[in-house]
Amino acid sequence: ERKHLRLMISSIRFVRCQTLPSRSDTFQLAFRRNIFKNEPKNITVFKPILAFGSFQKLRNGHSSPNSIQNPTNTRQNHFTSKFFTKSDENDSSLNWAWKEKMLESKLKKMDELDTVQMEAILSGLTSSEIRLACKHIRLYELMIRIIGMMESQHFPFILKFFLPDPLKSVKSMFANPYGSKVLVAILDRVPLQHTCLLHIRGNVFREASDISNLDSNSQRVLEKFVEICSDDKFTQLLKSFKNKIKLDGEHHYLLSKCINRCSKPFHYLLISEELNGKIVQLCKTKNSKLIFQYLMNFPSEHLEFVMDELLPRIKELSMDFNSCGSIESVIEKSNEEQLTRILDNLYPHIVELSMNQFGNFVIQTVIERVKEQQMKNILERTSHHLVELSSHHIGNIIVQKMTKRCTEMGLHHNILLNGLEGNVVQVCKSKHSQNIIQCLLNLKGAELVIDEIFTNLKEISSDANGSLSVRTLIHSFVEKADQTNLQKIVDNLTSHFVELSLNQPGSFVVRELIEKADEGSVTKIMEELSPRLTELSIHQFGSLVVQTLIDKANEEQITKILDRLSPHFLKLSTHKNGSYVVQKLMVASVSPSQASVIEGLMTKFGKRIRQDYFGGFVFNKYGAYRGSLKKIFT
Q: How far is Cα 117 from Cα 283, in angstroms, rounded to an integer?
């Protein structure tokens, strides 16, 4: 509207006005000054307030000498020819916009009115106003809300939507993106047996019977009609759809509604005749999963054609982006007999599908559905490929799924564990080992896996992926409060703690043990690290181990660490890694004897420490340390 008004102003800006139009005009358009801000400076223009009556005079070729100078000016003729054409004789665009505004205000009021007031407004609306509201981008949502608020006595007013020509009105609403939504709201709100709907239903059915000419808007109405229509009408629709439904995705939602609506044997028969020989084509199209979910609800005698077409090509379909979802739906909804047939066709390809981007979803669905004997068959098929599957970025998900399912079913996992026997180290070193080990620890007979890990604990802990497996093992023992196995880990790594602390993966394991193990195990670790504590403190990863050890140590152990590191205090304080160890040691040294040692070292080396870049952080920490000590001793 604003753009329209700008064009009008630009057309009359050279017309000089001597006086303003009369204020008695009912439809006045007031314009702000900023509309004229782009006007050339060398032209003097009087900014008028124009009334709609003045536009009408200009349009009809009349002009008053009191209002407009030079009535024969060519610019005036240009203005009238530009804005008012023969198509505007009955209703100008301005007047139509005004009607839209008035209608919108009426409809908005109805949201707040009671039943009697709503009925008064509904009776006052004309058919043309209602048709405008139903197909208007701003007003159709208001109409849908009002239809939802209507009570049974208001339903006869809905007939106004379709007068004077019901067939023509239904056609126009069918094709309109907003009108079709209003029509769906009407079909959804009004009871099927109501007289109002009987007038509409025949025209809707007439339009819906030719599915080949329907667009997306019309299909929306037809889907709703399929839900509410009687069995006789639905049967007629199915017969009219014969050989007309497109399986390329255009009619998928409509087809799913029809399949879901089927309730009689002849309905099943009509759908079976329509889809016979087209199941593979349908399965490979987008969004076909919903169709198969509804289709598998048919009685089993009407699904033979589906199984006969899918099973010979089930491997190909399981590895396809679109069809894998449909195969999952078939497996989820199948009965025991159908599931057995599906498994017989999947067994030869189960390993390949387990490592496929889309096929793994099908195998996961199978694992969720199978019973004990079928689960054993799957384990036997995969037992020789468990290491390969566990190391694969997709296959490891299937191994996890199998172990969890076996745990739920209470199965003894001899087949699964025997497949991993002698290969646990290789599994632990794989990229996805953490999740695999977590699942294996929940199995009955998991001691076989744990013993093999303990035997090769140093090798596994030194590996980037293996250290994750060992830390997962430690977490599992802590959760179960299994201090015996934690002690076994410490015993197996004794004499290897220094070596592990000097490499990144191993340092994570040592730190995890220091944090989670009991006090006796921490003492044992400290005794082994103590002779090389200075070397570890200046190492990139070893310094982190020493800091963790200081956090966990008791007062006696802090004193031992302080005695061990004090001869190298200056070297550590000015080192990139050692400075963090010294700062951590200051925070932990809270007894008077420890504080006096720190005080003496800082008095001796404080000036040199302060001049160093890393030493500056130590010096600042020392200032905070002295303040905290005063509070403690006070």
A: 54
- How far is 582 from 461, CA to CA, in rounded Å? 28
Burial label, 625 (beta-carbon count in 10 A; 0-12, 13-18, 19+) = buried
- Which pLDDT score is estimated for 443? 74
Q: Give pLDDT < 50 ranges for the chain.
A: 13-96, 195
* DSSP string across 80-148: HHHH--GGGSS--HHHHHHHHHHHHHHHHHHTT--HHHHHHHHHH--HHHHHHHHT-TTTHHHHHHHHH
CA geometry: angle at 194 spanning 189 and 200, to 5°?
80
Contact status, residue 528 vs residue 493, Cβ threshold 8 Å: no
SS (H, E, C) 539-603: CCCHHHHHHHHHHHCCHHHHHHHHHHHHHHHHHHHCCCCHHHHHHHHHHHCCCHHHHHHHHHHHH
pLDDT of residue 178: 77
Gap between the Cα atoms of 150 and 597, Å rounded: 87
pLDDT in tens, 477-504: 888 888 888 888 999 998 899 999 999 9
Cβ atoms within 10 Å, residue 275: 20
What values do phi and psi take at 182, rounded to 5?
A: -65, -40
Q: How far apart are CA 556 and CA 558, in angstroms?
A: 5
